[in-house]
Amino acid sequence: MSAVCQVLGTKPGFGHSISHSHVRTKRRFDPNIQKKRYWVPSLGRHVTLRVSARGIKTIDRLGIEVVVSRIQARGEKV
């Protein structure tokens, strides 16, 4: 399961964990991905999206209709 937001396209970031002795080891910063189910009136059905917490706020601000139309414009299946 990939950690990519369908709304914003947020992907994992990479960096280092730094210990007390300052030894650096590789680590991965994953976005907070969640499965959310939304009712889309224009499609007349529910749509399940894999969105980050910030993506959920974007849907709340813009509306599900606008977000779904943008996803479909990119050619991604909803």
From TrEMBL:
Keyword vocabulary terms for this entry: Ribonucleoprotein, Ribosomal protein
Superkingdom of the source? Bacteria
**A cellular component term, taken from the record's GO annotations:** ribonucleoprotein complex
Q: Which Pfam families match?
A: Ribosomal_L28 (PF00830)
GO-annotated molecular function? structural constituent of ribosome
Single biological process term from Gene Ontology: translation
Family annotation (InterPro entries): Ribosomal_bL28, Ribosomal_bL28/bL31-like_sf, Ribosomal_bL28_bact-type, Ribosomal_bL28_sf
Keyword Ribosomal protein attributed:
yes
The question of whether Ribonucleoprotein is a record keyword is answered with yes
Extract the HAMAP family matched here: Ribosomal_bL28
The entry assigns this protein to a family as follows: Belongs to the bacterial ribosomal protein bL28 family.
The UniProt entry, under NCBIfam families, shows:
L28
Q: What is this protein called?
A: Large ribosomal subunit protein bL28
Source organism per UniProt = Sanguibacter antarcticus
